[in-house]
Every structure is written in C-alpha cells, then in structure tokens.
Design goal:
The structure is a homodimer.
Chain A (H helix, E strand, L loop, with lengths): L16 H9 L2 E4 L2 H11 L9 E4 L6 H7 L1 H4 L4 E4 L11 H10 L12 H9 L6 E6 L4 H18 L2 E5 L5 H11 L5 E6 L7 E6 H7 L8 E6 L3
Parallel strand pairs in A: 1-2, 1-3, 4-5
Antiparallel strand pairs in A: 5-8, 6-7, 6-8
C-alpha cells in the first residue's frame, strides 16, 4: 500500500526514502489512475522502467473477479504496489477491495507511510485526537448538509469528539457559508487547505472569528473539522 | 508538528527526508519526552547540536501559562518543533494544547508527514476509509469494554462505519478474548501490531477465523478495527 503525494511536486516532502525505494523496486501495480501512478514513479526515479511494468487500473465498479486476476502475481512471489490517485491507498478509494481479496488469499499486506489530509488536519487542529471521526463527503443537498453539520456540532459539545469531513472542492464555499451561518458563535472549526502543497493554510477559530477571517476555499482541496479546544 | 518513529530504528522508513531536514534545522522544541526527542534528533543527524537547543517537556497536566512561555520564541521569529513520544504529535498527546495556544497567538502551525498507526491500520484493513472513527483506549472495566465492543459491532453492521480502537499493551490479550468470545462469528476484525517495526503483523479475518489464527499480542503495540469488507 504505497501512498502518493497530495498534489505537491516534491516527493521528499511527504514520502520516506525507504518507501520510495520499495515503490520503485516493484514491477506490478494496481492503481486508481495509471497516468498519475507513472508520473509519480518517474518523479521518484527518472530512470524508472515503466515499460517493464504491469499496471492495472481499478475503480469503484471493478469486479472482484478482475481484482483476483490482478493480484495473481503475488501468489507467484511478486510484490504488488497499490496506489491511489492522491494520498494513502485503501482509505477512500477502491484499494480497500484489493486488501480484502489479498487477505482472503493469504497475501501479506504492508501499509507504508505517507501523507493523509485527515491526519495532518487532526495534528494541526488542536482538537482531540483521542476520539475522532472522519465522515467523508458531506451530503449534496443543502438541508441534509446542514443537518449533518449540526449533528457534528452537537456531538462535539456532548462528547468532545472531533469530527472531520470534506466536500468536492467546488462546493467548499457553500460548506463554509453553512458552517458560519448555521453553527453557534463559539463552536470551534478547523479549516485546512492545500495541505503539503504550495499555499498550505490551516487554522482553527471560532465560528464568530471565522466570519471575519474566512479563507478563499474555492476549488482548493480542503478538510474541515469541528472539535473542542484542548 | 514533527512526527517521530513508532519505535522502529530506521528513520528513513517512516519520516520523509525533507521532514527530517526541517526537524534538524530547529533549535527550540516542545516535546512529550526529552530523552526520546534527543535520541530521535541524533538518529537523523549524528552531529545534531543538542547543547544549542532548548527543550521543554509537556504532559497532560502542563498549564497553559507554561505553554505560553514555551511558545514565546515563535513570536520572536523562531520555529518550534513539537514532538510526541511516538508517531504524530497532537493526535493523542499534549501537543494539541500547544496548537491551540499557537492559534490564539496567530502562530502558523505546520503539520508534517509521518507514521500513524491509526492510518496504517485503516490502509491495511480493507475496511471503509470513507467513514471511520477512532475511539482511543477502551474502558478498563471488562463489562464496559464488552459494551463498547458490541456498540462498535452494531454500528458497523448498521452504518458500514469502521471502528478503530486500542488498549494498553498488557491488556491486549483480554481485548482479543472479549472480541472472540463476545462478537458474532461473521464480524470482521483487523488486528495490527508492531506497525512499521520488526515483526509487523496486520490481518483481517472474521471472528470465527481469528479463533483459529490468533496472534500473540501480549505487550505488543496493537491497533484493532471492526469494519465491513469492501
């Protein structure tokens, strides 16, 4: 399980040297996007022999029978790299299905270290990391979204849990609007965008203070968190 | 926010080169444990000038007034490294309080990439990473622990959420016993121990299959997850 960059150009910022060495030693890959996988491998090793490699692309709809076929080289002793389009594979991408089938076939799974916008946001938020939830993408419908945000807020006040969530970048400003209009003045919100890449911003403020200091989040990869100050 | 190893000896396995360069360029540190912080810095740079550095140790009981004092160099233009005893600072350690005070003083917080047993377990579990919760340490009392485990199980069946949790290493075998005795045969459990260090094991099996394949978890740093196969 090989993490990739979150969109940044400098691999040494986010991928440990020995993870890079493992990744570029492989010749079999199961990836979310072949183009970005190749670009990542060449960024780590300009001489990386892409033509000697086998790449299989998977998405949400890839059937188990196809994945069984893709993991066959592991049964013959080859290591296979699983890569997501960005960040850690298996966390919010089809890589998890590969892990499940590997487990069934008794193939050893080795998760490697790399960047996760969830973890980085948690580290930079000042909120509790003893109890936290990541809820993925918010509901598309505005009423449902507001309901979800209010649920996170109420749960944070009740339990102290940290709630992390995100949305597609083109809806970020709608999410921000809902957070600032619908939540209590004193509720603490962390907003992180462009993590590990140029223009990184991460800040925790109360709803009241965010109203006067809002970032421009339009089209930027952004993670939100509601939590309790530690 | 500077991650450290999870106990492994090879820094290049888990810390990106540029994170190491940032860490060893600093001279002010706020750390959970001075001894292990110094050892980590020397592991990255054998010539690291420890005697030129200022280390402040913090724990759960450190008062805000002391932390204000520790972060003062940042107001004078110095960068300060925050390090946990192991893994990512600010996630389940007093580092979060430093972030909160830094935010209040308008000091920029920069979370850096490193190993997290939570994320690595999620990556290697084959469970959903779209919705997951980390609940920290389980309750000490056996009845409360079993209630928590059954709650995770029921929630996973109901929502598909992945539940990650841990316990102090000397109680690992009690947790395993409770998981295998109290949960349904078909419930899927991931157990990860010694992540990123010698003897790493990570495996996802049903309760029924775990009964015949249990690891020896005694005294090993271990993460547990209950989830739905993807």
């Amino acid at each position: 399980m090989i993490p990739t960059t979150l969109g940044g150009e400098v691999v040494d910022d986010v991928i440990p040297a020995n993870v890079q060495a493992i990744a570029t030693s492989l010749r079999f890959f199961i990836v979310e996007n072949v183009k970005s996988a190749r670009r990542f491998l060449r960024k780590m090793d300009r001489e990386f022999p892409i033509d000697e490699c086998v790449f299989h692309e998977i998405n949400k709809k890839t059937e188990a029978s196809a994945i069984y076929h893709f993991i066959k080289p592991a049964l013959e002793g080859h290591n296979i790299g699983v890569m997501s389009d960005a960040g850690c594979p298996g966390v919010a991408d089809p890589g998890a299905a590969v892990v499940t089938l590997a487990n069934e076939k008794n193939i050893h799974v080795h998760p490697l270290v790399g960047p996760s916008s969830i973890l980085l946001t948690l580290m930079g938020s000042g909120f509790s990391g003893q109890n936290f939830s990541f809820s993925g993408y918010l509901p598309k419908d505005r009423k449902d979204r507001i309901r979800a945000l209010k649920h996170f807020e109420a749960d944070t006040y009740r339990t102290g849990n940290t709630h992390l969530f995100m949305d597609t970048p083109f809806r970020n400003m709608n999410v921000l609007e809902d957070l600032l209009n619908e939540l209590a003045d004193t509720t603490m919100i962390c907003i992180a965008n462009n993590l590990t890449i140029h223009g990184e911003q991460i800040r925790t403020l109360s709803v009241k203070d965010w109203r006067e200091n809002a970032f421009d989040l339009a089209k930027k990869p952004t993670m939100f968190a509601i939590g309790k100050k530690q």
